[in-house]
Amino acid sequence: MDSLSSSSFISTFSPPSSLLLPRPSSSRRLLRINSAVVEERSPITNPSQNNDLPPSKPKKLYTHRTNHTAVSSPAKPRPQPQTSLATALFTRITTMEEVINTFIDPPSRPSVDPKHVLSDNFAPVLDELPPTECQIIHGSLPPSLNGAYIRNGPNPQFLPRGPYHLFDGDGMLHAIRIRDGKATLCSRYVKTYKYNVEKQTGTPVIPNVFSGFNGVPASMARGALTAFRVLAGQFNPINGIGLANTSLAFFCNRLFALGESDLPYAVRLTESGDIVTIGRHDFDGKLAMSMTAHPKTDPETGETFAFRYGPVPPFLTFFRFDSTGNKRKDVPVFSMTSPSFLHDFAITSRYAIFSEIQIRMRMDSMLEGGSPVGADNGKTPRLGVIPRYAEGESEMKWFEVPGFNIIHAINAWDEDDGDTIVLIAPNIMSIEHTLERMELVHALVEKVKIDLVTGIVTRHPISARNLDFAVINPAFVGRRSRYVYAAIGDPMPKISGVVKLDVTRGDRDDCTVARRMYGPGCYGGEPFFVARDPGDPEAEEDDGYVVTYVHDEVAGESKFLVMDAKSPELEVVAAVRLPRRVPYGFHGLFVKESDLNKL
């Protein structure tokens, strides 16, 4: 928990009270699914309507019940079977799925119970939102923000009937398009192969990775059902099973929606701010399998470095793209001897740094009825360092770092003429809770120094707060940086504020230099730094803005916030009321106007 007292977000920038009132709802829709009630307010399409009306009653997203009867998904038209055989197959598959969800593998743990996972603002929005005008309720949007802030996250197309994990929802992009001080919001699904197949079928078809295989009986049943669906022609796994729900990246003059279980999906924004999915991108056939959702682009060379990991050797494969978008050859790393959960990594001007943590694929966990991905407390975490341009893994060096488990890396750089690497990353203190009890996770940001000559690794915490989803000025990726902007877990995955850290302070000092709390009942997402003048080589590192989405759970209203990164209080310089709520999600990206024009 945050040890410092929270300051009210509303009282800090204090726009007129009439602007803080939630908008009245013209209509409501109510769905009952798997013994839960979902209530979704209709999108607000007229930002100029009267704001002096009394607040509307806060909406209820989920109400807990004890009955676990499976109920149909929200109205999604199913295609009419053309033959009696198709009808029989469809009926048989549906019956099998209901039996599995009800008797073999019901949602027995909170981490996979949709009534728990999809509560509050984690509940999905039930339809897409075309480009819709937003209202600026405080300050003004600076010219530096001409472009688009886009955030990715899970939003299941169908409300789940069986187990569901937070990581399993279909990817939905929420893009706020800014031009000349005006803003529009658009929310669209990434039209993955999975999304399109299930939309056409009218029901979930492809099993969820994190919640679909709980124990041997459930795994065998779902595996058999999946095989039956493939043989029946419902889907072809060769075309991809990914969700593209994790992050976004702009490189090789393309914008990608990413999820590490599939190829990247190329997307673009239209002039009006609409989001269009172009399709899976394999880089001229050179990327045949999945890749990380956290590639790193060197701002000086224009190269992009990436990797993939998997359940069979090689468990790690490193590769890069040159500045023209040409994918170079894979470097398989066989010295990673077990299938670890490797979500992120870091680069310097010379090296790439990987973390082999205590989360891995565990068959013994499945024998006990758990997920195939879990913690192994008997494993010693390691950091692996390989030259960026290595032709093979012979130059990979591994360093044991007991107790150091990172899901995300913030930045890294070289010191001592390349003999030392400095890594900044949040260390997950209770790794066993990462997938099952995220509210118990505490992430401590640490500065780690790796002496490549002596093999000695030293670590120092730079903040005692529960921090993750941290970013830097993108112009400093792989180079020595000073400032970090991190989300405050209260507890995770809810984010109650953002802090600014100065990592150049003493190794035993708390490095917090600025803080912004969103206020009671208000929670945000990952912050993102946007430089005031990215073309100015003399600009100070923190000369810019921190942006994010924030949701008020009491008013049922979402906002887009712009904060002054140099201000000691991260002062809010602009607040935009969004035409409907934006659910909590994962990672975002700002794309400047000149880059949008390249798409």
Automatic annotation (TrEMBL):
Keyword Hydrolase: no
Chain segments carrying region Disordered: 1-26, 41-83
Highest taxon of the lineage: Eukaryota
Biased composition (Polar residues): 43-53
Alphabetical UniProt keywords: Dioxygenase, Iron, Metal-binding, Oxidoreductase
Compositional bias segments (type: Basic residues): 57-67
UniProt key word Nucleotide-binding: no
Cofactors demanded by this protein: Fe(2+)
Leader sequence residues: none
UniProt record similarity statement: Belongs to the carotenoid oxygenase family.
Protein name: Carotenoid cleavage dioxygenase 4, chloroplastic
Organism: Brassica napus
